[in-house]
Amino acid sequence: MAVCCPACGREYDVTLFSFGASVRCDCGREIAPFPDLRPDPGEADVVEMPVDGTLDLHTFAPSEVKDLVPDYLEACREKGILRVRVIHGKGDGSLLKTVHAILERTSGIESYELAEAREGGWGATIVHLKP
């Protein structure tokens, strides 16, 4: 997945953006990977997150993951979504380990496994929730 600079059109791989951080393009413009998820200046730092069965952790700080994953899984269960894809990215594998450790400690998990290649391979985990 690529993020394009709106000023010059240069493409940057989304993996360059660590947890929603921005990067400076060669043309000098600051680029945010998911600008539509950032609040406008002056607004509260609360972003309404859709509960649709896919949680992409790229847009969150590592410190938020510990509470975010169980809360999101519970919100999915409340909506009747029992299969959830958690996208943690490939990177060095540290976020994958963190997510799996959280899943081990979270009640209501039936099982989990790495996603198949078409859903992200080892960059995502599929979580099956108990009804």
Give structural notes.
It is a single chain. The chain is α+β, with helices and mostly antiparallel strands and 131 residues long. The chain has two domains: 2-37, no CATH class; 54-129, Ribosomal Protein S8, Chain: A, domain 1 (2-Layer Sandwich), CATH 3.30.1370. It is 22% helix and 23% strand. The chain has two helices and eight strands. The protein has helices at 62-78, 94-105; strands at residues 2-4, 11-13, 23-24, 30-31, 54-56, 83-87, 109-114, 124-129. α1 (62-78) crosses α2. The longest helix is centred in the middle third of the chain and has 17 residues, at 62-78. 15% of the residues are buried. The mean pLDDT is 83.
